Amino acid sequence: MDVLDWLVALIPVVSFGLVPVIGTLIGGKPTEQSMGIALGGFVFSLIIVLFRRPELSPHIFLIGFLSGMFWAVGSVGQFMGIKYLGVSRATPMLNGGQIIGTSLFGVMLGDWASGTAKMYGFIALALIIAGIFFTSYKEKQAGGDKPQWTRGILINLIAVLGFTAYVGILKYYNIDGWSSIFPQSIGQIAAIFLMGFILFKSQPFTRLSFRNSIIGIIWGVGNIALLLSQAKLGLAIAYPVSQAAVIVSVFGGVLVNKEHKTRKEWIMAGTGIAIICAGLFMIYLSGKY
Asked: Which of 16, 2, 5 is nearest to 242 (CA)?
């Protein structure tokens, strides 16, 4: 592991952090926002195929396609969870669940092999999850919408399973990011299209879908960086690092989306960011040992 590997692992922090910020500006239904990301990712994947010319065997295409379908389940579930619970409740629940799921999956596949690595790794998970809860804190406002806990928790659980499977299946079959990104984008579009018609009875290809495609290109850069870094650093390291994207989302929400934060919310956010940074340092130590 060298400095370049860690720099690549930090790209998704910025990329994934910008996705909800820009998505909020553009707007749209869960299927429209997810389809926009998938369409932008498809354009990005075409560029990769044309210039990189990765291996695309039937096996790689099938696993990549399934990975994309799992991502679609996670993405649509993510936006639905926000609808039922609100951003401040859904985001830490989803991010924390993803960190736990992908890290445990990575450990089962051989990440954090030594006892010392496991110690630092699990401390890092606890710190990052706690930091996410702090940064996502929002004070209650009188007259606000009441969360739909049962639906929200169920949808978030499904989203966590989808996102965990999206990266886990590629790790399990040892398929690299360059090869998987094109079939993955096809799987994303196909799954969102089917969910739009079967589950939501709506057309996923709309004006807002195409406007959201700019997010997909940004997401695609982070996605390929995540897949490359997990091959170098391991799933149990790369994915928790990527979830530090919440730091970018917090500042982006204030600076771009003009979200207001109270003094207490700023204190909580600052505390959370410091805790996440401590967790990232523990992640670094888990990789070192």
From this structure: 16
- Cα distance between the two ends of the chain: 11
194 to each of 17, 129, 186, 221, how far by Cα in Å?
27, 33, 12, 25
Q: pLDDT (tens digit, 9 = 90+) per residue, 24-75?
A: 788 788 888 889 989 998 999 999 899 888 888 999 999 999 999 999 999 8
* Encoded tokens for 73: 């389940």
Angle separating helix axes 115-135 and 235-242, nearest 10 degrees: 20
* Vertex 33: Cα angle to 139 and 261 (nearest 5): 20
DSSP state of 145: P
Q: Are 104 and 239 in contact (CB under 8 A)?
A: no
Count helices and strands in the chain by DSSP H and E runs: 12, 0
pLDDT at 11: 94
As a whole number of angstroms, the distance between CA 289 and CA 281 comes to 13
Q: Looking at the predicted structure, is the pLDDT value of residue 142 above 80? A: no
User: pLDDT tens, 187-234?
Assistant: 999 999 998 888 877 777 888 888 888 888 898 899 899 988 988 888
Q: Which two tokens stand for residue 42?
A: 């498809």
* Tokens 């799921």, residue located: 101
Cβ neighbours for 207, distance < 8 A, ≥ 6 positions apart: none
pTM: 0.85
Taking the C-alpha atoms of residue 184 and residue 175, their distance in angstroms, rounded to an integer, is: 11
